[in-house]
Amino acid sequence: MKAKLVGVLVAGCTASALAPGAVLADTLDQQQLLHNADIQVQSGQSAAQTFTAGLSGGVDRVELLLGYGGSGPPTAPLTVEIRNASAGSPGSTVLSTGSVPAAAVSSTNAFVPIAFATAAPVSAGAQYAIVAYSSTDGTHHFRWGGQNGGAPYAGGEAFFQGTSPPGPTWIASGVIDDQAFKTYVEVPAPPTPTATGPTGRRAAAKKKCKKKFDKGTKKRFKCLKKARKLPV
Predict the structure, then answer these.
(1) For residues 96 and 94, what is the distance between their CA atoms, to the nearest angstrom?
(2) In the prediction, which pLDDT does 216 show?
(3) Same structural domain for residues 94 and 204?
(4) Residues 36, 139: one domain?
(5) Which residues partner with 178 through β-bridges?
(6) 232 and 169, same structural domain?
(7) What is the pLDDT of residues 109-163, one digit of tens each?
(8) Which residues, 6+ apart, have CB-to-CB distance to 142 below 8 Å?
(9) Which of 10, 166, 196, 224 is deepest in the core (most CB within 10 A)?
(10) What residues pair up with 50 in beta bridges, in sequence order?
(11) CB within 8 Å of 115: residues ≥ 6 apart
């Protein structure tokens, strides 16, 4: 089991122009890009990759390094879920679900985006899992690429099991240390500061003058002149 260290890659962005309650969508958070091996995803095998969130918000999209193998394209779509993690392994709580149609992959591996209609809530420093499974047969399987050797991603690891859809028991992959993936997070924008009126002795005195004396009167003029001499 690898040490669960956080490796965060954050795309730069500016929140100052956003309205209160807005979010910064599709902010790249975690990724593992290396690829020298593949694992099959088909009716007899599911695959997963755990990751440690570096940002708090909602995972609204992932990208997986996918292709197909065997005698032709897959005969069914690929289901992709974001789940919780339990004791370092993929958990059973599904936070979001997306799908990859068979037509979206080719015989050459490429990063394929999977959007979630409802973003999966994540907290920085907590671990989660990307789970992939399909009902396509073994001769028309999906390939999920990754890196065998070196364990390049410190925030998680690759898992598999011999059922689809997956059951509760996952096994650390002996073929791939880490799958190739990217996670994107909707990050809540900081609230816009609320404008406030002037404060302090001088402001209070001016306010009192305007309330007590009519505009344009000599008494109001003298009162404001005296107020302007007070400390801010």
Answers:
(1) 6
(2) 84
(3) no
(4) yes
(5) 147
(6) no
(7) 999 999 999 999 999 999 999 999 999 999 999 999 999 999 999 999 999 999 9
(8) 40, 41, 42, 66, 67, 68, 74, 78, 100, 105, 132, 134, 136
(9) 166
(10) 129
(11) 60, 61, 98
3-state class of 48 per DSSP? Answer: strand
112 closest CA partner among 84, 137, 77: 77
Backbone φ and ψ of 218, nearest 5°: -65, -35
Indicate if the pLDDT at residue 40 is higher than 80: yes
C-alpha to C-alpha distance for 91 and 21, rounded to whole angstroms = 31
Tokens representing 19?
């309205």
Give the torsion through C-alpha atoms of 55, 8, 46, 158, to 10 deg. Answer: -140
Whether the CB-CB separation of 142 and 134 falls below 8 Å is answered with: yes
| Same domain, residue pair 163 and 201 | no
Instruction: At 168, list the tokens.
Output: 């509760």
Res. 189 pLDDT band, cuts 50 70 90: confident
Computed over every residue of the chain, the mean pLDDT equals 87
Residue 103: the pLDDT is 97
pLDDT tens profile 16-27: 233 334 556 679
In this prediction, residue 3 has a pLDDT band, given cuts at 50, 70 and 90, of very low
Q: Which residues pair with 47 in a beta bridge?
A: 132, 160
**Which of 50, 19, 13 is CA-nearest to residue 186?**
13
**Domain span at 209:** 196-232
pLDDT at 159: 98
**Number of other CB atoms surrounding residue 19 within 10 Å:** 8
Q: What single letter denotes the amino acid at residue 195?
A: A
Residue 200's contacts (CB-CB under 8 Å, 6 or more residues apart) are 231, 232
